[in-house]
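Researcher: Go.
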Amino acid sequence: MSAPRPRPGRLPRSPVVLRGGQWWLVGRAGSIPASDPAFTAVLDDFAQAMAAADRAIHDLHTRQSDSSCSDPRGWR
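Model: Structure:
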């Protein structure tokens, strides 16, 4: 199974955006590309962890709603 890929867009509550496979630091004065390999590797890892967590939460909600629909009394 492959690791979840980060989705383009801003990391939540951060000044970092992934556009076209490149990390950018965004501020009031504009944007600059993040070029430090160690920093971008940490951003990649963090974004992958966030994507995996989002997927796990989605799967959990799906399983919970499937199980509540299958119980005729509505018990969980």
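Model: The helical segments are 37-70.
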